[in-house]
Every structure is written in structure tokens, then in C-alpha cells.
Write a structure and sequence with these properties.
The protein is mostly loops. It has one domain: Signal recognition particle, SRP19-like subunit (Phenylalanyl-tRNA Synthetase, Chain B, domain 1, 2-Layer Sandwich). The protein has one helix at 43-49. The longest helix has 7 residues, at 43-49. It is elongated. It is found in: Cytoplasm. Its main location: cytoplasm.
């Protein structure tokens, strides 16, 4: 962290925008029902929503498999 303390991320849940992208199929990586998902979510939107949902969020902007990235999985 910025204050010099270490973060133990071993027990953190990894959450990608593609998991809640209503434009993706289950086979493409969506993990919730399409009607509960949102269209092309971005990490910035997830960062905004995290405190509301009482989640601590650490953004990792490296590109991931299946075309996911910080731009919302597209």
C-alpha cells in the first residue's frame, strides 16, 4: 500500500468486469444472470461501486485472458 504496509492478497477474491458484463455469454466468462449484469462495465465503475458494496478494491491494469482488460472486458 501507499503507507508502506504489506497487503496479503492470498484470500482476496479476483473479480473481473467480464463477470458482470451483460453483453457476454456464460461461455465467454459472464458469471451472473444477464438481467442482473450491466453492459460493458469498466474497472473505474467497479472502483466507484466497491465502497458502496463494502468491498475493498485493488485495481490491476494488466491485460487478462479472454479479452478482459481494464476497459471492461471487450
Amino acid at each position: 500500500m501507499m503507507d508502506g504496509t504489506q497487503i496479503n492478497m492470498k484470500k482476496w477474491i479476483v473479480f473481473y468486469p467480464i463477470y458482470v458484463n451483460s453483453k457476454k455469454t456464460i461461455a465467454e466468462g459472464r458469471r451472473i444472470a444477464a438481467e442482473k449484469a450491466c453492459e460493458n462495465p469498466t474497472c473505474v465503475e467497479m472502483q466507484t461501486a466497491a465502497p458502496i458494496s463494502r468491498f475493498r478494491l485493488l485495481l490491476n491494469r494488466r491485460r487478462r485472458s479472454r479479452g478482459t482488460s481494464h476497459r471492461g472486458g471487450g
